[in-house]
Design brief:
alpha/beta, 382 residues, five-stranded parallel β-sheet
Length: 382
């Protein structure tokens, strides 16, 4: 624990030193002239090197450099490597529990329809991890938070035969989830024998929002009502694929506050949406920081921009730079250019959301951001 505390203290000191860089929101690159905020020696090194060499700054491991970088940048890179948690699995999972239903020639499409490959991988992997958790720590059912249209719950319920109670705040998504469940059961009846469907467990979809202030007793009451349970003599696992903002910390609190909860599997997202003492001073419970130790440290504050950075995987940027795949990176520049135009003409629309325009290779600034900008201004009544 001492090592963890020392690392947290050192991390806070480093974050404070480079606060000006962490708070440099890409959207404001031209508006706030981020380039001229860089030290002169950084600018001299960065302005003329091939872009693919920037990938060296994002390397996880110590490797030979093709560029002689400023000493301060090299020191910063070494400090980050020392303080960061290793992103590679410490021990590769030896157990495997694949879901055979996902390979069925007629039914696999019910689990993949309108789900992008990346999300398919995440759902499939999370389902397998949850099934392995259940095998190691058997529970009566699993509670899936932020279940959406039930992709994860569907694999667990029909593929692994586990009872799942889905918490989702949007009723239309729950309705859609139920429709997909029924369609899957109908197709399964045509293509599978009764013995092959005997393990099926239709997910229970509950329309309810879990707040940071929700107490364990309230949460348990909702479960009892949804599953029509008579008492609290049950056990369950808590799961969540991409619980947004405060929902991740809330799941941790529910896990600690409910003795019936036996395991917790979740992968958080949208950390910038976590509440803090500075942004929500009237609330008693916040998403960040979670630990008592960190909350007592001076300078523990992280801005919205700094927390938003943590949502991005630097490996993606490293690989794209190395492969000279600049198309995806150019979009950030386009959006920042559009932001400067927006603020010059309509200051009250700063940091507004723009409607998406389908991207295609070699799309120019006038083709993409101007379309987005025109759509936004039209929607806003300008």
């Amino acid at each position: 624990m001492l090592v963890v505390k020392e690392k947290l203290e050192q991390s806070l000191a480093l974050l404070k030193k480079y606060e000006w860089l962490l708070d440099a929101y890409v959207l404001d690159f031209y508006l706030d002239d981020h380039w001229n905020k860089l030290p002169d020696v950084w600018q001299q090194h960065l302005e003329n090197i091939p872009m693919e060499y920037l990938s060296e700054l994002l390397q996880n491991e110590d490797q030979d450099h093709q560029v002689k970088w400023p000493v301060e940048l090299m020191v910063l890179q070494q400090e980050l490597r020392k303080l960061c948690i290793n992103r590679a699995p410490k021990n590769q999972h030896k157990n495997s529990l694949p879901c055979s239903l996902l390979n069925h020639p007629k039914l696999k499409y019910m689990f993949q329809k309108r789900v992008k490959p990346k999300k398919q991988h995440e759902i499939t992997r999370m389902a397998e991890i949850c099934a392995l958790s259940h095998r190691q720590t058997p529970v009566d059912f699993i509670v899936d938070f932020g279940a959406g249209v039930g992709h994860l719950a569907r694999i667990l319920g029909y593929g692994y035969g586990l009872q799942v109670c889905c918490f989702e705040m949007q009723p239309d998504l729950n309705q859609k989830a139920t429709e997909i469940d029924l369609k899957l059961e109908s197709m399964a009846a045509k293509h599978l024998s009764q013995a092959e469907t005997s393990h099926f467990q239709r997910p229970v979809h509950l329309t309810q929002r879990l707040e940071s202030s929700t107490q364990p007793a309230q949460f348990l009451s909702s479960i009892r009502n949804a599953l029509q349970l008579e008492d609290d003599k049950f056990s369950f696992g808590i799961i969540g694929l991409h619980p947004c903002g405060n929902l991740g910390p809330t799941l941790m609190r529910m896990f600690l506050g409910c003795p019936q909860a036996k395991f917790l599997n979740f992968v958080g997202c949208c950390y910038q949406k976590m509440t803090t003492q500075d942004t929500h001073s009237r609330e008693q419970v916040h998403g960040y920081p979670l630990s008592k130790f960190l909350s007592e440290q001076v300078g523990n504050y992280l801005s919205y921009e700094a927390r938003e950075i943590s949502c991005h995987a630097m490996e993606v940027y490293h690989d794209r730079l190395l492969a000279k795949d600049y198309e995806h990176l150019r979009i950030h520049s386009f959006r920042a250019a559009a932001e400067r135009i927006i603020v010059q003409q309509f200051p009250d629309l700063r940091h507004c959301a723009l409607r998406n325009v389908k991207h295609s290779p070699d799309m120019t600034f006038h083709q993409k951001p101007f379309k987005e900008l025109a759509l936004k201004l039209w929607t806003a009544g300008y």
